[in-house]
Amino acid sequence: MTGSPFIIIGENIHASRIVKREGKHVGPGPDGRESLAFRGPDGRARSLAIPDRIRLSKDGEKGRIKHVQAAILAGMQGADADSAEGIGYLQLMAVRQVEAGASWLDLNVDEISADDAERQEAMRWLVGVIEEVATVPLAIDSSSPDVLRAGAGAARGVVGRPMVNSASLERPEVLEFVAASGSPAVLSAAGMGAMPAGTEERIVNAAEMVELALKRGIDLGAMFVDPLVLPAAVRTEATAEVLAAVTALRARFGPEIHITGGLSNVSFGLPARRVINEVFIDLFVAAGGDSGIIDPIGSRPRLERASRAWQLASELLLGQDPYGRAYLKAHRAGELVEG
Prior knowledge:
single chain; alpha/beta; eight-stranded parallel β-sheet; three-stranded antiparallel β-sheet; 12 helices
């Protein structure tokens, strides 16, 4: 949006992602089983039967289908035909994100299982599947250091070393194998067992992680600092705090370091999420961010800065619209159009 390079880390291949059970993506397949409808690279209609574990889960009962998890389970455990469709579904997601501009593909399997060994197995499998079609490097994403190691170790890295997402003060040991492998890494501003409380805590935590990484010989250019984006619906001041932290970190560490984050987190719990996400990306870049863990397919610039929708969303995100009253009123009046 500013004309400067923006590094997109495609967020879509994440086991927590859902589609509505009553939505356009779910319906009976050719054999009558409840399935996910998609099209292959050749445009041919395809169908992924949803595993019972997903259909009969609590999420399924509430009308939510974890579609990436369904594809991973089908690919790993299904019969031959189901396995092929699961793999095809995941590979198509990867290809579409690259075509939409992703420079990295973020993979996360944490919700596949509570068992860490099973997560490691799933990550190794997924890395192999996505690397078959990916023309950009992978980003291995997990809350478990062992899953991060498993995924990074499984990657062939033909088109570039995998990114590690993430290291934090709570798990600084991740920096050891990052330094040994030469991989880039996301450095989280999380504290010891808690999210940062405000701007200063984000800056302090992130700066400490940068210093720890530098001591291990990791270059600034291989660091992607994440100031941790929280939903504006939970606390509107938090968004302005993140933006202030981005500006301060950019000033402190200069142009070589990267500043990223899960930017779509900001819109959780709010209506017209695309409007919020688009405006926040714009504000994030203006503050000094040069990367984002986002959906490159859905995060397309549509709004003019002079538009009412952009102004309303920016006022909400900058803390100028207490409790989002004006934004929510405009949404109820039908004034926000997502495009």
